[in-house]
Amino acid sequence: MGKYVGLSPLPPVFVTQYAPVAVVEEEKCIGCERCPQMCFFDAIIMRNQVAVIITDNCTGCGLCFEACPVDCIRWIPDHEVPGGVPPKEEIPRVDLGD
């Protein structure tokens, strides 16, 4: 079970138009170094005891989000990142049944 009981473990609703990218709220980061260890994509480094996201490597998988003990990592649409990409076409939802 995720750390937010009752909330969907899926990425935010904007993913139908924009890919999610992690962002660190630097003032909240305690420098525990859990998130770089969780990232399979080498998208997080520590700089001056603060986690820094390498947005070009971030896939928005959410592992860092779950690893953070102080909730300083959140998702934003990739177009909000400086140099972000324009919106992609609407992705149709697929019903996978029960």
Description:
By secondary structure, the chain is α+β, with helices and mostly antiparallel strands. Helices cover 10% and strands 18% of the residues. It contains 2 helices and 4 strands; from the N terminus they run βαββαβ. The protein has helices at residues 34-38, 63-67; strands spanning 20-24, 44-47, 50-53, 73-77. The strands form 2 sheets. Strands 1-4 form a two-stranded antiparallel sheet. The longest helix is centred in the middle third of the chain and has 5 residues, at 34-38. The protein is globular and about 45 Å long. The chain starts with 19 loop residues before the first strand and ends in a 21-residue tail after the last strand.
Tell me the overall shape. Answer: globular
- What about the largest sheet? 2 strands, antiparallel
The total of beta strands comes to 4
- Order of strands, widest sheet: 1-4
- What amount of the residues lies in strands? 15-25%
Query: Helix share of residues?
Result: 10-25%
Structural class: alpha+beta
Poorly predicted tracts of residues: 84-88
Q: Please write the string of helix (H) and strand (E) elements.
A: EHEEHE
- The span between the termini is 20 Å
Mean pLDDT: 77
- Gyration radius, in Å: 14 Å
Helical element count? 2
Features of the shown structure:
single chain, 98 residues, alpha+beta, two-stranded antiparallel ribbon, two-stranded antiparallel sheet, 2 helices, 4 strands, 10% helix, globular
Show the helix and strand layout:
Elements: E1 20-24, H1 34-38, E2 44-47, E3 50-53, H2 63-67, E4 73-77
Antiparallel strand pairs: 1-4, 2-3
